[in-house]
Design goal:
The chain is mostly helical. About 45% of the residues lie in helices and about 5% in strands. Strands 1-2 form a two-stranded parallel sheet.
Length: about 150
């Protein structure tokens, strides 16, 4: 949650990605890594995640669940996040495309050097990440857990 931001050096994934615009303004030294992947692969992944973690079999079921108060784990905050990221655009693919436009529009109008696009699926790894972070490259291979076989 927001009060925790002062305690850590980095945050990932949701719900941070919901309010990246306010984080950009609130933390002027912050940098952002936009994890990208093929839209079809992302769509299959989010469908699988929704099935596994929420028991929903379709986008429509997820939308109905997110629209009902306090039906998702973690209460209304989680419902609001699901609506904003996934269910307000008419489908998973539309949600992906809307979020991509939102990120690009925001960073196109600001200091682009604060944003790195990172695509593990196209081969990005330590070289790209460490160059952006101005950090030494670790000796171990870049980790990739929870990989779905092609």
């Amino acid at each position: 949650s927001e009060p925790d931001f002062a305690l850590f050096d980095a945050f990932v994934d949701s719900p941070v990605c919901v309010g990246f615009e306010s984080h950009y303004e609130a933390y002027p030294n912050s940098i952002f890594i936009y994890a990208r992947r093929d839209i079809g692969s992302w769509e299959r992944s989010v469908e699988s995640l929704s099935r596994r973690n929420l028991g929903v079999r379709s986008f429509e079921e997820l939308r109905d669940l997110a629209d009902a108060p306090d039906t998702l784990p973690f209460g209304e905050r989680h419902n609001r996040m699901m609506r904003e990221l996934y269910t307000s655009d008419g489908g998973y693919r539309a949600a992906y495309e809307a979020y991509d436009r939102r990120v690009r529009r925001f960073f196109d109008a600001r200091r682009a050097e604060r944003l790195m696009e990172f695509n593990l699926f196209e081969g990005d790894g330590w070289d790209e990440l460490c160059a952006f972070l101005e950090a030494a490259k670790p000796t171990e291979p870049f980790p990739w857990d929870n990989r779905t076989p092609s």
